[in-house]
Amino acid sequence: MKKTKRISTDKLFKSFIYVALIGLAISIIIPVAWVFMASLKENSEFYGNPWALPDGFYIQNFVEAFIEANMGQYLLNSVMVTALALLFLLVVALPAAYVLSRFRFFASGLLNVFVKAGLFINVSYIAVPIFLLLLGWDTQLRALMGEDFFLNNRVMLALIYASTALPFTIFLLSSYFETLPSDFEEAANIDGAGYFRTMFSVMLPMAKPSIIIVVLFNFLLFWNEYILALTIMPGDNKTLPVGLLNLMAAERAAVNYGPMYAGMVIVMLPTLILYMIVQKRLTEGMTVGGVKG
User: Fold this and answer.
1) Nearest CA-CA partner of 86 in 183, 168, 8, 159
2) What is the longest distance spanned by two Cα atoms in the chain?
3) Of 51, 218, 243, 290, which sits most exposed with the smallest number of CB within 10 A?
4) Domain spans of the chain?
5) What pLDDT, in 10s, does the model give residues 204-260?
6) Distance in angstroms (rounded) separating the CA atoms of residues 75 and 91
7) 157 falls in which pLDDT band (50, 70, 90)?
8) Chain centroid to CA 104: how far?
9) Does CATH place domain 59-282 in 3.90.190.20?
């Protein structure tokens, strides 16, 4: 009797989980699908049934968004900044996480404390100090060479993005490296591999699932970041989120909704494509063994 009651309780719990997940999926899919449909509508269609399918594929919305609203240039800026930020981040975070998790040396505990303390710093709190710092450097540089460098610079923005993401990335990768057994390193050491060879040839390939999670999470963070991009890029090198806000303000004032939704699609599409590419990797099990005892 107890076993039957337990089975029915498990079925009820699973049914509740399925219903909740389906409801969550619907709440996400419907708005995204609506934005895609709205991006293909002519302006007159927005005054009818908002849930009606578009009469045709009005590609002119994307042409206006790309050319007239300069979203193509903003897209290129976002791609460059995000790619550089991920490159800078991985070059620094991977060795740092490996060393902090696998080696004990003088002040290693203090360094770990500093990394964890960085998790509690919100980037919005330091946007203005960063801007004032870069503005001061540009003022001094302009007095010496007559040129600006630090503000409105895509490489500098990428460096700042990577720096602000270091604490979380190092913490996440360190947590994974700590789960790996030392047998792999001992085997590599017996084969004559040094520390660098062991890290690049043995440990990093094993950390691929964790690296993919880090890349995806930080891609979303960098791609959608707004506050730093608005503060540090006051010139023409705007990124997509800043450009999208300007586009929405302009098209809403002109009562021209199609290009506005086309701009939203331009922002969302790279994220959806990346997720479809790596979603299988996200569910892979992480290898924590492999040496038979």
Assistant:
1) 159
2) 86
3) 51
4) 59-282
5) 888 888 898 899 999 999 999 999 999 998 777 889 999 888 888 777 666 788 888
6) 24
7) very high
8) 31
9) no
